[in-house]
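Q: Structure tokens for this one, please.
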Amino acid sequence: MHDTNVHQCLREFWSEITNQRDLSGWEDYFLPTSPQQTNYDDCGVFMLKGIEVLSRGDTLDFNGQDIQNMRQRMYLELTRQKLLPLPTCP
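A: Here is the predicted structure, written as tokens:
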């Protein structure tokens, strides 16, 4: 479910850390097809995975069933301080 209050909270946070007060040029954007977590534990993993996927120009096609693999991959990348290559499809 889409919570419009999130946009306002993000604007207030950004204004506070950057001292940028005029955010009138900002446009609220919500991607209705973005994967949604089904619990209260996986928000950080979903957020980081979404950022990674979008930064690579890929589609958001992961879900909660992938969470354990996503956690393991993130752990390896953080401990090795290096991004792993993307898996290839046969």
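A few notes: The chain has two domains: 1-28, 31-82. The two ends are 35 Å apart (CA to CA).
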